[in-house]
Amino acid sequence: MEDFNIQNILFYPETLSIDFLEPVIQKKEVTQIPFQKIDIQSINKKNNNVFIIDKSFFLHPENTSLFSILKQESLLVLADENNHFNIPENLIYQYIHPAYPKSAFIKTVSNVFNTLDQIKKLKQTEKELIIAEDKIDELQAVGLAMSTQKDRNMLLNIIVRLCIDTTGADAGTLYLLDDNPEDQNEKILRFMVNQNFSLNIQSVPFTMPLDKKSLAGYVAITHKILNIKDSYSIPESEEFLHSKSFDEKYNYITKSILTFPMLNRKDEAIGVIQLINKRKHIDVVLKDKNDFEEFVVPFNEIDERTVSALGSQAAVALENTMLYDSIQKLFEGFIKASTKAIESRDPTTSGHSERVAFYSVELAKAVSETTSGKYKDTYFSPEQIKELEYSGLLHDFGKVGVREDVLIKAKKLYPDELQAISYRFAFARQNILIQAQNEKLATAKIENREEFEKKSLEIDQKTNESLQKLDHYLEEIKRINEPTVLKSEDFGILEEIEKISCSNECEETDKLLTPEELKKLKIPKGSLSDEERKEIESHVLHTYGFLKNIPWTSEMKNIPEIAYSHHEKINGKGYPRGISDKDILVQGKIMAIADIYDALTASDRPYKKALPVEKAIHILEMEVKDNHIDKELLDIFVQNKIYEKTRIKIEE
Known about the structure:
4 domains, Hypothetical protein af1432, about 50% helix, 22 helices, Rossmann fold, seven-stranded antiparallel sheet, Beta-Lactamase
């Protein structure tokens, strides 16, 4: 297993001053490497390497060999998107516009290191999952009852029950070796299970030292089987003793005892099983002293050989279960890391994946309980429910493959674009004032005072009108920039602004709006252009591409397909495949409803208000009318008030 002490390295042109990045340099412990020519051989690919490049990068053609060794977005390009260098788009994390605020620059550098770190951790976790699954495949087959049990506590009870039934014992206890919480260099015995055919009791968990003073401790240390005919006749010369406190407390008589170790494949003791009072007849209940005298017999050699084999099988089954638990925890960690990676790219949707997973699971459970309609015979097993939950948590993972500025775009223009427009308007405003001042200077030559004052007044009126008009247009641009439905008159306003010149001294254009800005402001609905919307929609393809490369177990094999289907529509007009009703998994249809509902009601989106439940349900009903989502599934969602269950869960 690799450790995650990976260095953060920032390569930047030596002509570039990055003093303002000191906060993130300190916080992320970033090593700075200025360059003219990049020494490709010296780059450690295991590190998080981020490169700031500008046009000076291409003064040395050999620098472009860097592109051949990069495998993920790690380039910050100092240029706007219209100034394309010959750089593979899949390597560019973000373009940095000249007008980009320094605070945003700092945040971008922090985010790119966060993203690279998450990607490395996810790749490492995927490797660990593969290794762990390989280990499971290597485990020896054990008895069906043990090998199919994945719950450790249930398995331990099954092990004791099998040992009791096989030997005819009246009772059995099981201890596991565990680390001493007070001293990690020492082991203790942890009492786990007690079963007694003759007594109906609930034992209190406890621990005891791992030493030779107890029967269980002696067996765990020596790996020997102890077969004691009568616990009350143990010679004083023996290292071990048997405590009589249990007998005294419950009026029980412990006579014959068979204690044996659970040895794993490395011949290490991982636990101890203790069987008590072998009975002549397995259905005998030991009630009084006469019963113990008449029906309790010593364990024999066949019992010893039997429990020896059972102990080995039990150890293998237990290790199998413990490994399964370990893989479950590892996979849960992988899921959490994936969700965290998504949220680091798109903080505005924080919590969305968890809510979609919860809605989906609750709706699937409700479907399983439905007794009428087309889903009356549909049942989701616990494994399928878990599969759906994981699908919900991972359904948006592909967003890590979408440019961050597009992913979090809240308005039609990017902040730096609106700021650039404001600068142009301010410049145009200044030009109007300068022009007015020049005109007033020219009127100073007029000798007639009345004519002079009249001319000055005309200049002031014209200047004020021009400034008011300019301010009005800027406010209109800010209004139109909101992600609302564009009105027909708004197109006319934009056409008026399009004709206005700023000044020939303005950089890049003498118009107040560039063609690209004008195109974005004319987006009829929402904040995304067609190209940006397609890029956002590509997250489904990225998700599928990532998930299909994971070697899922048979119980989880549908995760890629479920996540792949959550934007498909019943009528075949969804994306990315445009498949219709019969080709969409029921789980995918369930998740589609969960995803839409949460998008409508989420309160963590800065660019829109959360809708009340009633309004969200109404919109979902319109989706049904448009043949986008499944009517019966929505009916189940509403009838079972899944949203209320989720609200309670979130509040908890």
